[in-house]
Amino acid sequence: MGNYIQPKCGYFPTLRQLLRHEAGLADYCELAEYHAAVANHETAWPPSEMMRSLDGYRLRYQPGNGWRYLNIGYMLVAGIIERATDLPLQDAVRRQVFVPLDISAARFATEHADLHGEYLGNSLDYGPGWVYHGLLTGPVSQVTLLLDCLLAGELLPANLLLDMQAASVLGSPIAGRPWISAGYALGSYAGLC
């Protein structure tokens, strides 16, 4: 299973706080060393090293009382899934999502080469290891099937689907983007035109 870590600070945010980017934790995008390592095509640091470099469990604000984009939150959720299912993340997703929906061509990218070729061309120059919660790749038809089944209520109970789509609106329109309102919900992004 993945090399995910448990907090040692006596605080663990709720799943909703992690998925809504309201957990109060820091994110690695604030680290200059992270940006330099990615630019230099270095191998991703182990999650424990990332959290140590970031002082990742020190609260930046009281959980639930602020918003800050948080990839670290997704990493922690991935660890929770692994512990709950006793499976590596990719096996848990395959068993719980892909198999029931007959999605066979999607996979987790683990190497830089996985981001080139059949589906994505040569447009991405990012090591998938830096996406600590996993990076899925596959044909557009399979992504469309997944989103269609998710939004049609085939994966989640109706109340969770509504919660997943209830976005917290953030600030004002973003220059150069087509939407006039943007927000995040439970692990999803919403742009309203």
3D architecture notes:
The protein has helices at 15-19, 32-39, 47-54, 71-85, 89-101, 140-151, 158-165; strands spanning 107-108, 136-137, 168-169, 181-184, 189-192. It has 193 residues and is mainly alpha-helical. The chain folds into 3 domains: 1-86, no CATH class; 88-155, no CATH class; 167-193, no CATH class. A hairpin with a 4-residue loop joins strand 4 (181-184) and strand 5 (189-192). The chain starts with 14 loop residues before the first helix and ends with a strand. Residues 1-5 have low confidence and may be disordered.
What is the SS-derived class?
Answer: mainly alpha
* Radius of gyration using CA atoms only: 17 Å
Q: What is the general shape?
A: globular
Termini separation (Å)? 41 Å
Strand portion: 5-15%
Task: Pick out its properties.
193 residues; 3 domains; three-stranded antiparallel beta sheet; 5 strands; disordered N terminus
Q: Secondary-structure map with pairings?
A:
Elements lengths: L14 H5 L12 H8 L7 H8 L16 H15 L3 H13 L5 E2 L27 E2 L2 H12 L6 H8 L2 E2 L11 E4 L4 E4 L1
Antiparallel strand pairs: 1-2, 3-4, 4-5
What is this entry, summarized?
The chain has 193 residues and is mostly helical. It folds into three domains: 86 residues, no CATH class; 68 residues, no CATH class; 27 residues, no CATH class.
